[in-house]
Design brief:
Largest sheet: 11 strands, mixed
Radius of gyration: 24 Å
Oligomer: single chain
CATH topology of one domain: Rossmann fold
Distance between the termini: 14 Å
CATH architecture of one domain: 3-Layer(aba) Sandwich
CATH class of one domain: Alpha Beta
Length: 590
């Protein structure tokens, strides 16, 4: 683990690398309407030290983007008959980046066999609805691959075996414009990766004439990616342009997420992702403390407290034996005291709707009290300036009375990927506590590669899916305004950090569940089933939303994956530490 502690942040980056393959232990859930899937991740040698924060040089060359996009066509030309004959036992590797195995082809498991679904998701009909943002990006990628291969550049319908085929000629005028925008964006990225900054700037000038943050979804996402590329060029050339560093955003993302802003509440209300994670995650907790009298929940980042309103509601309905005596929540946060006080007010307001007495006090930390059916509900908030200040004794685990300890990590771990010493410290402290379950919510995408082109393609498809969900779920009027604020304040700045920043400034780093799975193994963590009740909760939440046909739920191993039109968005997983009673964990080095 030396590579976690000895690094020079000025010239190195770290990428969690995981090992992935088709999961032969996948279990379907037909009763609850889950669509089964198989997802390919990074291929890695079994004897490699996987799951690490490996130091990777930032100055490594980015491969041409068309070599990445060529993998779409390669994968799509693999037929079911090829698989049955064993012609493609080893799928084509993504030499330039992990791309479009998930974006270009759908994987399903049917009747116990692994097959690749060859049907085209873009069925062009005279009465069809407009193509999604994701589909536009796929078509643009296909055309770029075709152009780079010098095959019939002006007639993409002649691409042999290509699944879009003649449909490209059926695009509407707006769709043709959107595909052109996306093509120019991809070409600009390749110019930037080759340090052809003047050519890239010229392409971005053309893009700026055709896109706007108030336009079509494709226009909007291209607008924010164009801004990020401008900033990237400024950083590389030492200049400051009006659309690059001169327009650099200074919004505190953590503060926006923490507060009860109108856009955050609108997203929570209109888009199913956060409610799926909250209801399913709380159900996992309830399942693991079903027979406990005293429950202690360690919340790694209380954020805006929405998830605990779900817990309060669940506990308020508990009627079985043994009676619940105490629920204690210790929330770890680096937010300001006044922001936490606002969280207390929101919890107090919600408790009143359930006829639950609730009060909070600001002491050495901040403590909230609520009485639920005779049981004390106690929340203590610990404010830390640095995760390295975290010690086991701050949790006050109550040795006199046995407590069932649960850890809930809601999008916290990703914030420490750029600080591996903090992440490792946290894991060691949690292992010393040995909770009965650890529930983790994370982003399901890889935005942590040191390779610029890699980060671009992954983030392009991820945020294309998110922009598409915002467009479908949040209509005009107040919701439209909240959507624009979300795209600008949250996603626009995140895209800039992913693409333009390096070192510690690049603090938006996401990795997939396969990577976390490999990393957790180092600390003796074992993945556990979420439970049928939790999965059923997820399905019930999806059914409540008008966009339910676009939001699908799948399993990767034992983890729940939330997808939007096939693109992975979030993961929910549960873990336990494998720690025999006779093992005495030495924390003297912590």
């Amino acid at each position: 683990m030396d590579e976690l502690n000895s690094f020079n942040r000025s010239d190195e980056s770290y990428e969690l690398e995981g090992q992935g393959d088709f999961d032969s232990n996948f279990h379907s859930l037909p009763d609850y309407g889950f669509s089964n899937f198989m997802e390919e991740d990074y291929q890695q040698s079994p004897d490699s030290d996987h799951g690490l924060l490996n130091n990777l040089r930032l100055d490594m060359a980015s491969p041409p983007i068309h070599t990445c996009l060529e993998e779409i066509a390669k994968l799509e030309r693999i037929t079911n008959e090829d698989l049955k004959r064993g012609k493609h036992k080893n799928p084509p590797s993504l030499a330039s980046l992990e791309l479009l195995k998930s974006h270009g082809t759908g994987f399903k498991k049917l009747t116990g066999e692994r097959i690749i679904e060859a049907t085209c998701p873009v069925q062009i009909r005279p009465d069809r609805v407009r193509l999604s943002v994701i589909e536009i990006m796929r078509i643009a990628g296909v055309k770029l691959v075709h152009s780079a291969s010098k095959m019939n550049e002006d007639n993409p319908s002649d691409i042999p075996g290509h699944r879009y085929g003649h449909h490209c000629s059926d695009l509407t005028g707006i769709e043709v414009k959107n595909v052109h925008l996306a093509e120019n964006l991809m070409n600009a990225v390749e110019k930037v990766s080759n340090e052809q900054f003047e050519n890239a700037s010229s392409l971005l000038d053309e893009i700026d004439q055709l896109c706007s943050y108030t336009g079509e979804p494709v226009e909007r996402i291209v607008y924010y990616f164009s801004e990020a590329l401008r900033e990237k060029i400024d950083r590389e050339t030492g200049q400051t342009s009006d659309k690059g560093l001169g327009k650099k955003l200074t919004i505190d993302l953590d503060k926006v997420i923490m507060g009860p802003t109108s856009q955050m509440l609108a997203c929570h209300r209109r888009i199913p992702f956060s409610q799926i994670l909250q209801f399913s995650g709380v159900q996992v907790i309830i399942d693991h403390v079903m027979d406990a009298r005293r429950v202690h929940i360690i919340d790694l980042g209380i954020r805006n407290g929405c998830h605990w309103t779900v817990l309060m509601q669940a506990l308020a309905s508990r009627r079985h034996e043994p009676p619940l005596e105490l629920v204690k929540i210790t929330a770890i946060t680096t937010c300001l005291e006044k922001d936490i006080a606002e969280t207390g007010k929101r919890l107090e307001s919600f408790a009143k709707t359930l006829d639950l007495p609730f009060s909070y006090k600001i002491l050495s930390g901040i403590i909230f009290y609520v009485l639920i059916n005779g049981a004390m509900f106690l929340t203590k908030v610990i404010m830390l300036l640095d995760m390295l200040d975290l010690k086991e004794d701050v949790f006050d685990l109550g040795e006199e009375e046995k407590e069932s300890v649960v850890v809930y990590a809601d999008f916290l771990l990703k914030t420490m990927i750029s600080k591996p010493d903090r992440l490792e410290w946290l894991m060691k402290v949690l292992k010393s506590i040995n909770p009965c379950v650890v529930v983790i919510n994370e982003v399901e995408s890889n935005h942590n590669s040191p390779n610029f082109v890699n980060r671009f393609v992954e983030s392009l498809f991820y945020y294309s899916a998110y922009f598409d969900s915002l467009d479908e779920c949040m209509e005009d009027g107040d919701d439209g305004q909240n959507r624009r604020m979300t795209e600008s304040d949250l996603f626009g700045q995140a895209i800039r950090r992913i693409l333009a920043a390096e070192g510690e400034e690049r603090n938006i780093r996401h990795v997939k569940i396969a990577v976390w799975r490999a990393f957790f193994t180092r600390f003796g963590m074992e993945e556990v089933d979420l439970g049928m009740a939790s999965l059923y909760q997820a399905e019930l939440v999806v059914r409540r939303f008008p966009c339910r046909s676009s939001c699908t739920l799948d399993l990767d191993g034992k983890s729940l994956i939330i997808r939007w039109k096939g693109i992975p968005i979030h993961s929910l997983s549960a873990w336990k530490f494998q720690q025999p009673e006779e093992e005495k964990y030495d924390d003297s080095h912590l």
